[in-house]
Structure formats: structure tokens, C-alpha cells
């Protein structure tokens, strides 16, 4: 049935003399579980299925979609996509050109050990209840929460160029947080990460390996202790970030500005543009010489990434592309359309959040390659500085230059030792200066591929899953504590 | 699908009949079926040409069952009988755990609703060519001035319908349209954003011209030092503040958990006396629905009245625990942040825009903020930056554009320093708000390369 839907839609596009068309038929499942203070808040499964038809006609795009997978609807939706594409010509400055891509017939599946969906709700609740119970065992914790989320997506892609690709992806994850409220102050600690935890491509084994139970009492105690900690000082300091916070720093200050559609101005009305404009490629110093950033969608070198797949949503194979090499900005995340604008081939970064959304240039796994240091060594070689862990707040300008982040917890570093805990830590900076001050990067042993399941972009907005490999790293002379000063 | 249960979401009768069939299929002692349907289209332009043009329709069915006093829920957009049975069974499996107590124990019965007329056929039928022509008008006007246009034109028709096994039947359909644009002139941008239930009243032409004028007026921006300035925050900036107050404290769950800024403050002053905020789904300029996701009729709720913290919004479960009644602000089952006010209305003041500008010796006019995030929830401290039209005011006149800056501010303190409020309001999304003149607004750093 689904195969014929794609064929019918592609035939309509061909008969309308479209230069190119593709169809994605998708079935998505999600399970979301929240336990709070011992009570099950929600355990909900949702299914969404449908198809989307994208047509390039006379140099303009049209896209339409429907949840109803019937032959008649396939024809109707394809006709609408053609009509929308033709309407786009009313305001066409230039015809869209697509960079060449390989024609592929293939199937790709996320490797996993245990499909999370057949795992019983009882088993999942046993783990979350245990974690929440340990969080609540610490006096002073007011809100103890545990989260689990699982996604499965079955997708069939077919294009007028002859590509036929089936993909099945599975993402799993969990997390917990302890919140302590005292004297009008709210302090929260999360594990393994904030924003409801850590998420990776894989099965239920991802959740089992997280160590939720083992870390519950520690983070709960830290949440309570933060009330007694001193306020993070303001000033210029050497800053060490843990891997999870650095993952978001990479996402915001490297991933988004390296999106070629932003750099070319397509997102100016919503998400913004990029300071990494095309003339800077190959000659702009983005960071220090030890900074190497890649967009890596391959299973080979980014297993477990939320941006790991076989092919992107216009059929380009998964690739590992250098964005920053030895500190120099060298490459973009791109699509076939945007790559043709700068004379390149697609980097395979076109992704759509659902069947009813068009693919956009999105991050895959944008990662900082491991260095040769370690958190322990970085602390030992810092005379005066601060260690910040676990994101609490993030904001960056529309060109991705100036940012301000806050974390849940920090520790001052004095004479090579982790000293007192500080609360409400924040830091801010300008992207290239910040990365230019990077002088130590943790090694492979501490490198983790973190999941960001909530990246928003586009109109209508699409929420995408992206991955970011990172290990703890150090940055010299960073502005700290501005948010609370004055 | 051969046995797909067919209905037209834009038609009340067939939609409610579909939901009744779903409820009748349920093995649970009590069942609620909620349908959200959307048909929407959006034309996007940038670099003065259309680069994305999309249409989509979807219906999501959410079933909530109560069995032996416990709730379960699940959702699907497949409406063949097998998929519907599986969805109901998923919800039953959760209910059978006995882990989500139904508070109160029964679904509500039949309700009466006040009609809200916010559906317009012309908006639902607005075509790809119509949208393209709106975009083209601004593109052409910008081209004449050597500027570039980007933005989006969109229209939608949304349906919310509910049937439950206790006799409740609710249906509402609304339309909306939006035009938003960013105009660039010599790398300086102006911006606009407007909405209309009836697309023929979407003032895209004038709003686009305003964005163009601001881009042209903002060229050669001055770099002024960060610090405290008197500012005029236009409606989109105030809307951002209201969004954060909604999340941080206007819902009963935040109060129940002790994390709301309203905790221990009800009846006490939390902002200036000139600030009054309500949630009002029935406001004539709004885009309300007369019932919530449990089918409870929406009530107008006073949140802040003349600076005094006055109330928060409830759904049925939070109301039951607090000994109150629901105000009609439940969100879909599975949403775990509790009830929220989605139709915030800030009362206007008495000043014109010109009067506010003329009253400022030295200050800034802020068109909008960008990327606002909470820094400290207890303090309602948020950060963000100015964007797309920030101007220096000197001696009562706009004299130049200025480089954008980052702010860190406590929202409630900002609302305690509102010296003037505009006599007109605008709808931004589902929020209706005036502009405000704020004293001593705290900018902390420059945005950009330094």
C-alpha cells in the first residue's frame, strides 16, 4: 500500500513535468513516562502516520502532506504540491538547482539490543520509582522527578531520480531531577543531563546503562547543598565545562551557525542568520588550534547519536564532514539546494521532524573531537578558575555570536584543586573568542555523545533530535557571573 | 484503510459522531475522546523570493479512560477500527496500573458554552497564490528601496472537539492568519508580525512598510554602553515577558509545588499598580476557545489586578486538590506542566506611542526580544537580546538605530517600573498586550563582535 502511495504521487509530479519530486511515508511511535514525587504523572503512547510530497517544478518548491494513506489522497496531495510549487513562481528570483546526489536503493536500521516498546510499563516504572524514591530520601528535596522517552520511526523514501530507501530509527533515554525550594530560592540538580535527561540512538539498554539509581542521592544532596553555597562570583576566569554543558555550547555556537541555509539568509525571519558567512570558509579562525568540530551522521564514528542515520531526508548518504579543522572554519551542514549555491555537494543534513514537515538543513551529530587532556588534569593545572556542570539556561543571538549560559552547579578551582561549591553560575562570551581560548580538551575516555531532543527551527516550527559528542574542556579568561551582577 | 471511520473535522456533526463511536468502542467504565485537527499552509520567503511553500493537514485523537478510579491515555492519527482499539487498549493498560488517580473520580457531564465566533471561510480558503501575492507585495516595495524582504504568510483552520461517556459534547473551529516579515537594508533589519482571524483584515501591507521604514531608519547604528536605560518595550517584547510569567507561576501546579512567584503572594502587591493581567478566552480581539481539554467552560480569570496577585488558573485535578473549582484551563492528557492560561490579556493604559517617546530624555525603543530564557525561576530573572529594530531616543525623539544588547532582568521588577502604558493593544499569537515604558531596564552586554 505505502509503495503505491509513493508511486502514485511521483507519477503525478512527473506528469506535471516536475524537475524533481520525493515522497516520504512515515510511521512514528512515541512513549513518554513521567514520575513525580512517587506519583505516575503520565505514561502515554502516541502514534502518528502519514506522508509528505515535495515537488520541484519550474525551479520552485511545493510541499503537501496528509495523514490519510490512500491512493486517492496520494494523487490529491501530489497535485496540491504541484499547485503550491507553481504558485511559488509568483515570487521567484532564481530557479532552485540541486547538487548531484547518488541514486540509492537501501535499508538502514538503528542498531539496538532491546526494543524499548515491548518492555513492560511495570519494568520501566520499577526503575523510575527507585530513582525518584532515592531522590526523595534526601531531606530538603521538594520535587523529585524521573523521565523516560522512547521514539521509533519507520520511513520509506522514494524519489523521481530512482532512490528507494527504508530506514528504521529507535531513540531511547531517561533522566531525573531533584528540586529544593528554600527561602524563596529554587535549586535543581539533574542527571545525566537537564531537559529530562540523556537520549541516544539505541534500545532500552541505553536507559539501563545510565546509572540512575547510583547517582540519585548525590544529585539530590547537591540540590539541597546549593542553598548554602555562595553566589557565583562575577569577573573574568578560566572556565572548565563538563561534557553535557559543552554539548549545548557546541550545539548553539557551532552547530547552528554552520547550517548553510542560515548562512545564506533563508532563516533570517525566524531563527536568524550566521556569522559564518561563505567567504569565511577556509580562512576564518573559529577557535584555537586544538579545536576540531565535525558533523558526523555515520554509525561508524557516531554510534548512539540522535543524528546518526543511513541517509538524510532527501536521500543523501550519512557523512562525516569537518566544520572546524585545527581551529579554522572549513565546512557547512548543507542540503542539495544550499550546497549547489556554494558549488559543493550536500553534506547530508536535510532532516524533517515528521511526515507533515519538509526537510530542512539540520544538525546531525555536531561534535568536538576528543583531545588529550582529562578533567582531573585540567583542574590540576588551573590556578584559579571555575568548573560548571549541567545546563540551566541558554541564550544566543540571532547570528550566533554572543551567548549567555547558566548551569545548575559550579565549583571554584583554587591552586589546582576543586574548592567550594557555588550557586547560580553563569558565563557569557563571543563565539570565536570563547573557542579561541580553548586550551584543553578531554580525551576519548571522557567523550560522550549527548542527545538534544528539543532543537527548534523553521516555520512551521520543527523539533529535531540532534547529537553532540563532547568531553570536558577548558576555556581561558571567560566572563562569569554577569547575569546576576549589578 | 478499508474500515477507516470517516468524518470531516470542519463539520461539527460528523466529527462528534466519530468521537461518539470511539467512546462507544471503549471497554473502560468512563472514556473521553478529544480530537485536535489542523489544516494549515505557510509560504516562506527570504532573499526576496519564495523558498518554502507548504501545506499540511492532520487529526490527532487523544483518548483518556478511567477504570477503577485510575486514568490512562493514548493517542493516534489512524482511525481504522484496529488502530482505535489498540489505542484504547494502550490507555486501558496504563489505567490498570492504578497509578494515576482520577481526581475528581468522574468525568464531567454535559456543559453549556458561550459561543465565540472566530472562524472565517476566507481565511481557511486562502490559496497558495493569495499567499504568494502578499509576499510579492513586500518584496517589490523593498526592492524599490534597495532592501531585501524575508518572512512568512500563513493561514490555518483548527478544530478542538470532545465527547465523553458522561454526555459531554464540545466542538469549536477557528481560523487564523499570520504575516511576519524581516526587512534588511545594509545589514540592518526591521521586523513585523500581525495576526487576523479574517485574512482580509491582515494588515500585511502597512506592517511590511513599517518594517521597511525601521530597517532604513536603523542604518548606521550607534554603539552605546550597556547599563540601565529607560525603554519603550513594544508589544512583542511584553508578550515574551507574559509567556514566562505564564510558565513560571500563573498555573495551579506551580503554586501547588511551591515554585510559583505567586506562592504566599496572593492578595499582595507584586507589580506596579498600573498592571492588570487576566486570562480571557472571550476577548473580542482574541483567539479563544470556549472550553478546555476536559470540556470545562473557560472562565475569565484575574491573574494580577492593579498590581495585586489575584489568582491562578486550574484544571479539574488541581482544583480538586486545592478545594477550588476548575477555571477551564486544562491542557491535553499527557501534558505534565498542569493548567496554564493561554489567552493572556494585559490591560491598556492611557498613553499614545508618541507621548511615550516624547516623555523620554534619553532611552531606547525596543521592537522585540530574541531567545529569552529563564536564568533564575524564583526571581523571574530572564535573559535575552534586542533584535530587528532598536532605536536611541534623545529629548523626546528617535535619533538613530543602536547596536543590539543583551539584557538580564527580573520580570516582576520590570512590571513595577512601568511608567506609561499604551492605550492601544495588539494580539501577538494568543496574547493581547499594550506597549510599556519601563524605567532603568538593565542591559548587560553588547550583542555581536564586541
Describe this structure in words.
The complex is a heterodimer of chains A (486) and B (450). Chain A is an alpha+beta fold and 486 residues long. In chain A, 21% of the residues lie in helices and 40% in strands. Chain A has 2 domains: 2-228, PmbA/TldD fold; 230-484, no CATH class. Chain A has helices at residues 2-15, 71-88, 121-136, 205-208, 212-225, 243-255, 260-263, 336-341, 375-380, 431-436; strands spanning 20-36, 39-57, 60-66, 105-109, 143-159, 164-182, 185-191, 198-201, 230-231, 235-241, 284-285, 293-296, 320-325, 328-329, 350-351, 360-361, 366-368, 384-396, 402-414, 417-423, 426-430, 438-441, 448-457, 462-470, 473-480. Chain A is globular, with a radius of gyration of 23 Å. Chain A starts with a helix and ends in a 6-residue tail after the last strand. Chain B is of the alpha+beta class. Chain B is built from 10 helices and 19 strands. In chain B, the strands form 4 sheets. Chain B has a 6-stranded antiparallel sheet. In chain B, helix 4 (128-144) packs parallel to helix 5 (204-217). The N and C termini of chain B lie far apart (60 Å). The relative contact order of chain B is 0.13. The chains are: A alpha+beta (486), B alpha+beta (450). Chains A and B meet through strand 1, strand 2, strand 3, helix 2 and helix 3 of A and strand 1, strand 2, strand 3, helix 2 and helix 4 of B. Strand 2 of chain A pairs parallel with strand 3 of chain B.
Amino acid at each position: 500500500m505505502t509503495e503505491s502511495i509513493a508511486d502514485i504521487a511521483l507519477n503525478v509530479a512527473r506528469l506535471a513535468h516536475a524537475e524533481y519530486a520525493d515522497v516520504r511515508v512515515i510511521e512514528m511511535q512515541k512513549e513518554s513516562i513521567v514520575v513525580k514525587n512517587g506519583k505516575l504523572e503520565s505514561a502515554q503512547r502516541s502514534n502518528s502516520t502519514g506522508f509528505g510530497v515535495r515537488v520541484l517544478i519550474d525551479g520552485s518548491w511545493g510541499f503537501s502532506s496528509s495523514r490519510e494513506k490512500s491512493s486517492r489522497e496520494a494523487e490529491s496531495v501530489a497535485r496540491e504540491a504541484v499547485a503550491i510549487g507553481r504558485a511559488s513562481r509568483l515570487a521567484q528570483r532564481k530557479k532552485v538547482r540541486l547538487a548531484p546526489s547518488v541514486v540509492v536503493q537501501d535499508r538502514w536500521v538503528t542498531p539496538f539490543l532491546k526494543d524499548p516498546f515491548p518492555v513492560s510499563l511495570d519494568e520501566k516504572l520499577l526503575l523510575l520509582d527507585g530513582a525518584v524514591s532515592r531522590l526523595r530520601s534526601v531531606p530538603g528535596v521538594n520535587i523529585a522527578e524521573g523521565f523516560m522517552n522512547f521514539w521509533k520511526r519507520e520511513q520509506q523514501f522514494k524519489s523521481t531520480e530512482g532512490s528507494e530507501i527504508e530506514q528504521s530509527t529507535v531513540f531511547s533515554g531517561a533522566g531525573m531531577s531533584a528540586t529544593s525550594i528554600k527561602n524563596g530560592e529554587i535549586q535543581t540538580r539533574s542527571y545525566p543531563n537537564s531537559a529530562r535527561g540523556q537520549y541516544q540512538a539505541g534500545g532500552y539498554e541505553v536507559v539501563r546503562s545510565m546509572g540512575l539509581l547510583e547517582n540519585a542521592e548525590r544529585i539530590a544532596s547537591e540540590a539541597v547543598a546549593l542553598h548554602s553555597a555562595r553566589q557565583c562570583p562575577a569577573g573574568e576566569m578560566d572556565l572548565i565545562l563538563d561534557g553535557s554543558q559543552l554539548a549545548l555550547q557546541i550545539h548553539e555556537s557551532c552547530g547552528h551557525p554552520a547550517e548553510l541555509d542560515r548562512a545564506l539568509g533563508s532563516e533570517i525571519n525566524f531563527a536568524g542568520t550566521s556569522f559564518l558567512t561563505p567567504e569565511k570558509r577556509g580562512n576564518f579562525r573559529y577557535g584555537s588550534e586544538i579545536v576540531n568540530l565535525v558533523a558526523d551522521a555515520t554509525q561508524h564514528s557516531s554510534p548512539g547519536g540522535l543524528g546518526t542515520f543511513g541517509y538524510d531526508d532527501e536521500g543523501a548518504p550519512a557523512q562525516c564532514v569537518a566544520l572546524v579543522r585545527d581551529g579554522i572554519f572549513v565546512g557547512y551542514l548543507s542540503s542539495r539546494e544550499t550546497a549547489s549555491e556554494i558549488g559543493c555537494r550536500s553534506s547530508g543534513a536535510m532532516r524533517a521532524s515528521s511526515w507533515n514537515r519538509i526537510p530542512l538543513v539540520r544538525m546531525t551529530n555536531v561534535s568536538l573531537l576528543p583531545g588529550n587532556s582529562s578533567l582531573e588534569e585540567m583542574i590540576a593545572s588551573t590556578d584559579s578558575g571555575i568548573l560548571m556542570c549541567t545546563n540551566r539556561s541558554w541564550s544566543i543571538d540571532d547570528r550566533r555570536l554572543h551567548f549567555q549560559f547558566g548551569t545548575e552547579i559550579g565549583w571554584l578551582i583554587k591552586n589546582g584543586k576543586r574548592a567550594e561549591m557555588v550557586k547560580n553560575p553563569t558565563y557569557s562570551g563571543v563565539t570565536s573568542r570563547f573557542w579561541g581560548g580553548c586550551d584543553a580538551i578531554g580525551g576519548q575516555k571522557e567523550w560522550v555523545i549527548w542527545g538534544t531532543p528539543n532543537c527548534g527551527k523553521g516555520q512551521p516550527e520543527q523539533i529535531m533530535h540532534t547529537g553532540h559528542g563532547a568531553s570536558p574542556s577548558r576555556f581561558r579568561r571567560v566572563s562569569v557571573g554577569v547575569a546576576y551582577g549589578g | 484503510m478499508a474500515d477507516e471511520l470517516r468524518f470531516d473535522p470542519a463539520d461539527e456533526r460528523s466529527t462528534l459522531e466519530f468521537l461518539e463511536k470511539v467512546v462507544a468502542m471503549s471497554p473502560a467504565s468512563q472514556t473521553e475522546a478529544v480530537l485536535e485537527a489542523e489544516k494549515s499552509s505557510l509560504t516562506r520567503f527570504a532573499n526576496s523570493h519564495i523558498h518554502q511553500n507548504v501545506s499540511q493537514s492532520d487529526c490527532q485523537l487523544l483518548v483518556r479512560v478511567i477504570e477503577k478510579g485510575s486514568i490512562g491515555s493514548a493517542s493516534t492519527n489512524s482511525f481504522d477500527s484496529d488502530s482505535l482499539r489498540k489505542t484504547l487498549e494502550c490507555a486501558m493498560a496504563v489505567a490498570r496500573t492504578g497509578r494515576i488517580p482520577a481526581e475528581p473520580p468522574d468525568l464531567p457531564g454535559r456543559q453549556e458554552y458561550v459561543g465565540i465566533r472566530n472562524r472565517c471561510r476566507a481565511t481557511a480558503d486562502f490559496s497558495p497564490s493569495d499567499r504568494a501575492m502578499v509576499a510579492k507585495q513586500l518584496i517589490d516595495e523593498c526592492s524599490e528601496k534597495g532592501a531585501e524582504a524575508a518572512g512568512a504568510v500563513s493561514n490555518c483552520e483548527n478544530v478542538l472537539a470532545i465527547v465523553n461517556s458522561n454526555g459531554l459534547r464540545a466542538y469549536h473551529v477557528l481560523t487564523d492568519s499570520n504575516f511576519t516579515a524581516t526587512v534588511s537594508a545594509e545589514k540592518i533589519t526591521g521586523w513585523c508580525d500581525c495576526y487576523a482571524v479574517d485574512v482580509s483584515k491582515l494588515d500585511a501591507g502597512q506592517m511590511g512598510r513599517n518594517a521597511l521604514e525601521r530597517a532604513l531608519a536603523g542604518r548606521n547604528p550607534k554603539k552605546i554602553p550597556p547599563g540601565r536605560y529607560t525603554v519603550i518595550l513594544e508589544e512583542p517584547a511584553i508578550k515574551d515577558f507574559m509567556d514566562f510569567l505564564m510558565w513560571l507561576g500563573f498555573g495551579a501546579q506551580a503554586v501547588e509545588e511551591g515554585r510559583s512567584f505567586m506562592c504566599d503572594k496572593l492578595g499582595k502587591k507584586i507589580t506596579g499598580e498600573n498592571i492588570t493581567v487576566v486570562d480571557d478566552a472571550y476577548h473580542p480581539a482574541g483567539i479563544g476557545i470556549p472550553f478546555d481539554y476536559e470540556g470545562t467552560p473557560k472562565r475569565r480569570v484575574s491573574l494580577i489586578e492593579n498590581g495585586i496577585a489575584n489568582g491562578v488558573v486550574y484544571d479539574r485535578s488541581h482544583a480538586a486538590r486545592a478545594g477550588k473549582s476548575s477555571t477551564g484551563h486544562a491542557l491535553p492528557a499527557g501534558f505534565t506542566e498542569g493548567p496554564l492560561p493561554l489567552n493572556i490579556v494585559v490591560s491598556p493604559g492611557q498613553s499614545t506611542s508618541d507621548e511615550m517617546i516624547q516623555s523620554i530624555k534619553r532611552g531606547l525603543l525596543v521592537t522585540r526580544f530574541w531567545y529569552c530564557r529563564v536564568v533564575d525561576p524564583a526571581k523571574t530573572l530572564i535573559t535575552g537580546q534586542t533584535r530587528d529594530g532598536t532605536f536611541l531616543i534623545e529629548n523626546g525623539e528617535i535619533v538613530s538605530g543602536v547596536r543590539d544588547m543583551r539584557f538580564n532582568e527580573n520580570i516582576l521588577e520590570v512590571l513595577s517600573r512601568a511608567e506609561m502604558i499604551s492605550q492601544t493593544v495588539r494580539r501577538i499569537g494568543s496574547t493581547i498586550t499594550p506597549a510599556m515604558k519601563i524605567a532603568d531596564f538593565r542591559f548587560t552586554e553588547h550583542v555581536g563582535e564586541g
